Amino acid sequence: MSATLTLIAAVSADGYISRGSGVPWCLPADRAHFRQYTREKWLLLGRRTYEEMLGWFQPGHHPLVLTHEPKLIVPNGKAVSSVPEALRLAEYQRELVCCGGAEIYQAAISHAHRLIITEVHEILGHGLAFPKISKSEWEPVSRRSQAVDDDHAFSFEIVIYQRVQRLDLAA
Ligand SMILES: NC(=O)c1ccc[n+]([C@@H]2O[C@H](COP(=O)([O-])OP(=O)(O)OC[C@H]3O[C@@H](n4cnc5c(N)ncnc54)[C@H](OP(=O)(O)O)[C@@H]3O)[C@@H](O)[C@H]2O)c1
After folding, report:
1. From the CA of 66, how far away is ligand 1's center (Å)?
2. What is the position in ligand 1's atom list of the atom closest to the CA of 9?
3. Total domain count for the chain?
């Protein structure tokens, strides 16, 4: 048995998740989606994102924090030194949800089964990038839109991608 690895991220139209610190948008419907999707799940985070999110974690969350510092104390969770180690620890969970940041998305995407991407219709121009989503490897299976309104300065779509299943023609 192994956990499904899902990457969840909000990404600008030009591929960035942050200008360097913090998330560059205030989009309440996306925050609610993130809170709802990650509820009571095991999470995989980079040490910098973990530190930014301290105070946010809820009972039921189990953060696995990727760091080179094995002695890092993680209440209700654990420090890990690699994505495979996190997947081994989460072996008996249905899902492990990777919440970033940029370094961790890069390390985790080759292990991922599902991407949940909030595609924000804004150009950031520079910043920390999300790995390129290859159309030959990932197919969109659902899409939900949010328009600009009083609470949302930018429109966005929440797109779920599944890894493309390859037929093994040699079998
Ligand atoms: N838009 C979004 O959806 C979204 C989501 C999450 C985060 N963010 C933003 O992304 C930014 C943070 O991203 P980031 O790339 O700077 O940091 P990060 O990925 O959150 O964390 C980086 C840290 O992870 C550890 N690490 C990375 N690779 C490792 C490896 N191979 N082995 C062991 N440890 C490893 C290191 O910790 P040590 O230094 O402790 O060794 C490194 O300093 C923040 O601005 C945050 O707000 C945006």
Report:
1. 8
2. 3
3. 1
